[in-house]
Amino acid sequence: MTKEQAILILTIYRPGIDDAADPEVMAALNLADSDRELATWLAENTALFEEVRAKLKQIEVPADGVSRTLRGRPAKWFLFPAWPRAPWLAAAAGVMLLLGLGGGWFWTNRGLPHEFQTWRSGMVRKAMENYHTDFATNDLRQIREYLARNGGHTNYWLSPALEKLPGDGCGLLRWHNRPVTMICFAMREREDLYLFIVDRAALSDPPTGDEPQFAKVGRYTTASWTTEDKTYLLAGAVDETSLRRYR
Amino acid sequence: MSADPEFDELVERYYRPLYQFAFSLTRTESDAEDLTQQAFYTWAAKGSQLRDPAKVRTWLFSCLHHDFLNTRRRQSRFSHTELSELEHVLPSVLPAAIHPLDAAQVLQALADVDDVFQAPLALFYLEDCPYKEIAQILNIPIGTVKSRLARGITQLHRRLSDAPTPTAPTAPTTPTAQKELP
Predict the structure, then answer these.
(1) Which of A26, A105, B120, B166 lies at a 20 to 30 A Cα distance from B26?
(2) Which CATH class is domain A116-245?
């Protein structure tokens, strides 16, 4: 290990908090033991860490913050309105509620194919929100393995340009009770690219053929195409020329 | 008055660290307070879904950070770099070259580092969070956490070394120390 490597590792090392038994940390600490300059730097770095931490912990907290939070908590009755006291009324209300919920569920999950455009807008909205990936990694192979283990699409096709990008993570989404796989690709200094995959049968009017159709949805450019039994949607805050490179 | 002792205990226990984290991100009392309250209210509505009580802290911080990003529309999608790729951005300021600090300077320096480094740094300093927990809170890979911390600390040290001496504002300015590394 070089001194530069040791400095890099020890820059983020917090004695007593981070694992000193980690092989890299251990090697860096051993080097510091035998190198006086590095040892001095480490002592100073640790002292500075303590000082910055102490100062940040001085951030003043509103004295009544706790009590205001407790007072402002949404009451439970807001979520569960008072139930009718008469048993027959409660039973009737229960039946009505179940019918309503059941009807709503049936209406939205009839298993009928839905319009492609609605799906595309929904997916772009997902991308524009701050997504929470189910699995975060840069490794596309691990993403494929994760999807295989968790019921996502597996035999999907990635263009060579996408294969070269580092992953950012993946998500398993539901859309009208249909599974949708989301794969995020990290772009240097830019927002991620998103690839959504859904079964072709889930859509009433999927894009026909392998040739991508480009469309602007909000500030995102999208490319969509269908290959075999799957429909793909690639979306990103880039222009069409840039997006073409990844398809 | 709340009738839920579990909720009360949670607020008592985590209000301070959550607020400090929120403030380090927003630098505004009202925003920090809103974010902190919202994290607890979200927990009140959805927290029962959390099966592992040991993960309450991670859940609350993650929720707050998510709300922060949503509120500010600051996208957290930046390039991901591994720590080993960062030798070219090694800290160029010796820690000892940084004069005694005051809290306002540290906050200002934290505000001046790139957005993407601020949340990892706040968790690193304020919460003694292990890298793995920071990764879970921010929903990014652990390698990315380490690289963001290394770059963020380097930027922070630079900003701190540039900051004026807090104890003697009228004294001649301390020359910015950019000593070479050992």
Answers:
(1) B166
(2) alpha beta
